[in-house]
Amino acid sequence: MIRLEQISKVFNQGRPNEFRAIHGLSLGIAADRVTLFTGPSGSGKTTLLSLVGCLARPTSGRIYLKGRMISALPERFLTDIRRSTFGFVFQRFNLIKGLSLIENVMLPAYPLGLPFPELRERAAGLLHGLGLGSKLENRVEWLSGGEAQRAAICRALINDPAILIADEPTANLDSALTREFLAIVEGLRGQGKGVIITSHDPLIAESAVMEAVIRMRDGRRVERMAMED
User: Fold this and answer.
1) pTM for the structure as a whole
2) Domain-located, residue 15
3) Range of the domain at 209
4) Average pLDDT over the chain, rounded to whole?
5) Which of 51, 48, 50, 30 has the alpha carbon at shortest distance from 39?
6) Does residue 178 lie within any of the structural domains?
């Protein structure tokens, strides 16, 4: 369980352009379910996702992971938590051009010090599992949008995280590829992994794959709706 208690996030605090992105938000997120943060642009959903994933710190309030307060931990501990608990799929996927597909997938695991053959085998297994086994040595700039998304998911899973975090993962994809992404999410859920997504895509918000929906507006939760199992 991830628990947020009276979380606020302020950018440029004390300056004329101060902006409060999150206003005293409290909520619980089941770490083994598919949760959606949704709302219009500027609602605070991406900021909230970055706080949950330890990519940013709250200005005030506390964040707990499995009962442990993590929001005030030193950065080196947060790095370990990010590496072991979360896998990230960014909106533009952030694959590194000039590297092969399998090299991109392996990158997040290098700090773990695994033997190279074992790491390569793990990366290849993930890529084969998502239909990219024939493109291991292809440079990532040669991939289609759907292939790049699947590659980013493989990279996020290379350290076997408990929770996949995806920020607007279908923003640049058509409806067919969005449904493909939802099928992948459903498969991950079947493996016992949690998934936390931000999106304002109706196909995502209305999907039966979503088990909890947290609706955001102006940095506040306006509704939280748990879906039937």
Assistant:
1) 0.87
2) no
3) 33-54+80-226
4) 88
5) 48
6) yes
